Amino acid sequence: MDDLWTDVDAYVVDALLAPDAGLDGALQRSKEGGLPEIAVAPNQGKLLQLLVRMSGAKRVLEVGTLGGYSTIWLARAAERVTTLELDQHHADVARANLTAAGITNTEVLVGPAAASLEGLEGPYDFVFIDADKPGNPVYVEHALRLSRPGTVIVVDNTIRQGKIVDPANDEPAVVGTRALYDLLRGDNRVDATAVQTVGSKGHDGFVLAIVR
Description:
Layout: H1 2-16, H2 21-32, H3 42-55, E1 59-63, H4 69-75, E2 80-85, H5 88-100, E3 106-110, H6 113-118, E4 126-129, H7 136-145, E5 152-156, H8 172-184, E6 190-199, E7 202-211
Parallel strand pairs: 1-2, 1-4, 2-3, 4-5
Antiparallel strand pairs: 5-7, 6-7
Helix pairs in contact: 2-5, 3-4
């Protein structure tokens, strides 16, 4: 089914997304720089951009920059984006990609995300979390601290090919993802749901939440 999912994604992208030198260049430079090819798919990047626009978000926080591909999508819809990246090389590539795409409203902070989050002041209107999965509960707690009523929080890669339903699976990413659901379960600070997806990135999904 993976080939079919990829073909459908390609069809959707061809039908609904215009060619974009800034975004395509970011993917190419990231590949040439040796970064892992794990950026969001183009249609998923467009979804993030639409969610920012639909929510009227001005200040956006991103946890997990990688090469800045999703950052470009977010920055084109927001007034200001703060994005956090652990790896200095990844951050350097991301800054080059942002500059090449004409993005000037973004700050890239380098270091462990939990430490960077400690130094930030909110509120942010939109938070996108796409970093190491064991850290997701910590990142969401910080996101809630830095939010306001109505802030939208999106956490990527929260289905893990369905592995989350296997209690015997002790992969760190799976355990961290289940801990995220445990945090959100019954939490009266947010209204949340999760959607599983298939596509060029395989079988996965995301959590979508809004702060009460």
